[in-house]
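Q&A log
Question type: sequence-to-structure
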Amino acid sequence: MKISNEAKVGILAVVAILVLVLGFNFLKGKSLFSKTPTIYAVFANLGGLEKSNQVKINGLAVGAVYNFAPKDKEVSSIIVEIHLTRDINIPRNSIAFIDASLVGASYITIEKGEANSYLQSGDTISTKIEGGIIGDLKTQLTPTLTRINETLDSLRRAISGIGAIFDPSTNTNVQTLIARMAISSAHLQELLNSQTGALAKSLNSLNSVTGNLAKNNEVISSSLRNVEVTTTKLANAPIEETLQDLQSTVNEFKSTATELKNTITQLNSKNGSLGLLMNDRKLYDQFSKVALSAEILFDDIRLHPKRYVNISLTGGRSKPDPITSPSLKDTIPIKFE
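Response status: OK
Response body:
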């Protein structure tokens, strides 16, 4: 079958259109034969960002801007569709911002995060507002411009002040100031007078003091030598031995106090003899009974001595009955409780 020239022209036109569309999409960053991974970013302002602008990570182009779409009818923000041209892993906590150079187009920079999970196709990356190089220059120039404006204001005020000096209304004040400066100069001259000035008198007094110091130089030197000898003796004194003796004495006092405390503890205890004598009520009562018996015995010996020593030449006689209680005394005995 023979193809007509018109058909050849039509086929050629279709092929040309197809190549043109594919080439245009290729230039826009689209993959022609495979599905391109796509992520999204939402910005409040795009600035100079355009379609087909690059998307970079650490300066390396990893994708391109494919399309823009408003988030709502009020265009409160703009959704940017990003096609990735490289097979890379972008952590989920990465942040994207719009950057720009002094010469060239704007682009999107992605700061990688440290998350272990990664963005998938169709996910939305977090964004932030970043001024870029232009914003940095503006930030650095703003304080300088402010200082320049302040300097100009100060210069303007200074020029106004200079103009006020030549104002007739301030001429009198200037003359008064000059007159006061003349008076102050005269007072200063009087103060600096080499004969009657206060400064000359002070210098004379200072010279007198230094002269006295020079006359008593030997006395001062002797005093300094005495101080040096005293400090030398103090430095050579056996302070360490004295401290050791004092420490030994303190230790002996501590040992004596400890022994005294142990003795008092034993006295208060009921295990020892002295403790029993001091703390046992029954032993105290027995001692009281023994003392009472001894008192009765001594009273009986005093009242009836013949009962115990009996020397008779003519024969015995009846003995009185022994006493069973102490006899009455002239003094009142001490009562123990």
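Response note: The first strand starts at residue 38 and ends at 43.
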